[in-house]
Write a structure and sequence with these properties.
The chain has two domains: 105 residues, no CATH class; 44 residues, no CATH class. The protein contains nine helices and no strands. The radius of gyration is 20 Å and the shape is elongated.
Length: 166
């Protein structure tokens, strides 16, 4: 989970010439960190030496997260979280789409966590989430740039008889 969220970079190995035409440098540095996690030890080698063209084809797909990875890495379709780590390295722009699919397929009632009910206000959604929350089941806000749920949280606090200023 830490890798998925932070995607650390290891800049100790320069990006190979065979990848320079299509793979961003930051993606290569992410892969160098990924190979420190089991079962990805050989991933950089396969990317660079054994299947660079096939990885480039995967990389250039419109929705690569929906496509099988090249070679033996296609087995990661049965390990969706691990496949998401590869996507995080190579195509971070597609992680949100893959995360939505992961939630839908992995969690019970996963669709209800991904699909937005456009008949409910933000305050209604927060109220429903609060009912499901507990001290051991927190509420996480996954925000897009510019989103700010503070007013909604303050509204909920007032509704429950709390002073949000305290």
């Amino acid at each position: 989970m830490n890798f998925l969220v932070n995607c650390p970079l290891d800049t100790s190995v320069p990006r190979p010439a065979v990848l320079k035409d299509w793979l961003p440098e930051v993606a290569w540095y992410s892969v160098q960190s990924l190979i420190k996690i089991e079962p990805f030890e050989q991933f950089a080698n396969h990317l660079e030496k054994e299947m660079p063209r096939r990885f480039m084809e995967w990389y250039n797909e419109l929705s690569p997260e929906s496509c099988k990875l090249p070679g033996d890495w296609k087995i990661l379709d049965k390990q969706p979280f691990q496949k998401m780590l590869v996507t995080r390295c190579l195509r971070p722009d597609r992680v949100t789409a893959q995360l939505s699919t992961f939630i839908r397929k992995t969690l019970p009632r996963g669709d209800s966590f991904v699909d937005c009910d456009n008949t409910s206000s933000a305050d209604d959604v927060l109220q429903t989430s609060f009912v499901d929350a507990s001290p051991t089941v927190p509420i996480f806000f996954i925000l897009s740039p510019g989103a700010n749920p503070i007013k909604n949280v303050e509204n909920l606090a007032r509704k429950m008889g709390m002073d949000p200023a305290k």
